[in-house]
Amino acid sequence: MSKPIQIGLLGAGVVGSGVIKILREKESEIERQVGAKVIVSGALVNDKSKKRDFSFTKDFFVDSATEIIGNPELDIVVELMGGEEPAYGYIKNSLQQGKHVVTANKEVMAKYCQEILSLAKANDVRVMFESSVGGGTPVISPLIRDLLANDIHSIRAIINGTTNYILTRMASEYVDYSAVLHDAQDLGYAESDPTNDVEGIDAAYKLAILSTLGFRCEVKDTDVYREGITKLSASDFVYADELGFNIKLLAMADRNGNKIQARVHPVLIERNDMLAKVDGVLNAVEIDTDLVSKVLFHGPGAGSLPTGSAVVADVVNISRSIVAGMSIPDPVTLTNNYEIASMNELNCQYYIRLNAKDQPGVLAQISAVLGGNGISISSFIQKDSGNSSGNAELVIMTHLSNEKSIQNALLEIGKLSVVNEVSNTLRVLD
After folding, report:
1. pTM score > 0.70 for this model?
2. Pairing mode, if any, of strands 339-340 and 259-270?
3. Which helix (H) or strand (E) holds 305?
């Protein structure tokens, strides 16, 4: 049996505790698979006196990253702190000091993936990050290994459990966003500041990583068009149901020729689509390829043990290579021969919800604006406001239309005297 593989944790919170628990409970099996013991030698924490749900020695916790990164006995640094800094600096420093790195940090990998992969290669070590997307649901490893021979056409993903829980509740109960958000916070599904989740930031980070690996070119979070779910109301779900759709926050990326378009926003999705049936806090990633067509990965996207499972899998993979004396292959070789397509190039159907005067000629005026921008109406629904205001709610479904044309039309429609408000606009999943 080889000498033990020693790892150090940067962070021992929810996920870090899960990693320690798994490595201890599965110690014998992991040793059998690796050919050596895998030992957590220490962990960087903010508060060494905090009570933990696992036993530890007096000197297990440290309050300086140098005690982990600079420890010559450590083989692998596991970064579980989250956020851009100081995690980004710690990851770079670890690689420069010849340490392999396992990270769950979606923000760092979304912003600096190519740099970090290059730095690992230059120092003959590797960085693995399965847990950065999908929690315990494997998707990164299949992308870089099992689907390597495939050309990826598109990625469709529900990759934020908080927003999926909120939208599931809104769809089933026809309640407004604010009420469900409060419940999600009480249940621990949403942070006190939910901005990263509900504005699509978290999903954009994850989509950038999936796009980079899938299309084998660097796609950063800033390349991802993003809209959140805060504009959705119960009315949108009522109309969606009537029209045969569900509403999901989807992360989507497509490759057309040498252009890649990546976007995160709510979409209308047909009820019989597999992604439309992914409810609650679960995640799902659908990848469309030239050789195997569509494959779907479905499972938990967060949590101590699911995410810890992905972290430990990366640790085991690196450990086996160390024991075998084999170099670990690069996760993916990237090229920069692609352009990022503008959102204005998108073509799809659109849902437009308006509050307008309930009087003759209103639809004719709106139709004239749409027609003037090359947009034709597929169907519409009109309902009285239910009071004496003299207003009505109008929902328009378009035929296939162009994003730039839609946005220009909406600006014109908003200026019509017969239109009180353009309440919401949603894209329809093609």
Report:
1. yes
2. parallel
3. helix 304-324
Residue ranges of the alpha helices (H) in 337-402?
362-372
Any idea what the Cα angle at residue 13 is, between residues 36 and 127, rounded to 5°?
50
* Short-list 197, 210, 296, 294, CA closest to 260: 210
Query: Which tens digit of pLDDT belongs to each residue from 225-281?
Result: 999 999 999 999 999 999 999 999 999 999 999 999 999 999 999 999 999 999 999
Report in angstroms the alpha-carbon separations of 136 from 38, 50, 90, 183.
Answer: 20, 27, 24, 25
Residues 3 and 51: their CA atoms lie apart, in Å, by: 31
Amino acid letter for position 196: N
Pull the structure tokens for residue 45.
Answer: 């924490």
Map residue 270 onto helix, strand or coil: strand
Answer yes or no: are the C-beta atoms of 358 and 390 closer than 8 Å: yes
The residue to which tokens 């315990």 are assigned? 136
- Asked if residues 320 and 35 have their Cβ atoms less than 8 Å apart, the reply is yes
Residues with catalytic annotation?
A: 206
Domains parsed from the chain with CATH numbers: 5-135+303-324 (3.40.50.720), 140-300 (3.30.360.10), 344-428 (3.30.70.260)
Q: How far apart are CA 125 and CA 282, in angstroms?
A: 33
Q: How confident is the model over 122-168, as pLDDT tens digits?
A: 999 999 999 999 888 999 999 999 999 999 999 999 999 999 999 99
Q: What SS3 class is residue 298?
A: strand
In 10 A of CB 272, how many CB atoms?
9
CA–CA dist 419, 410 (Å, integer): 11
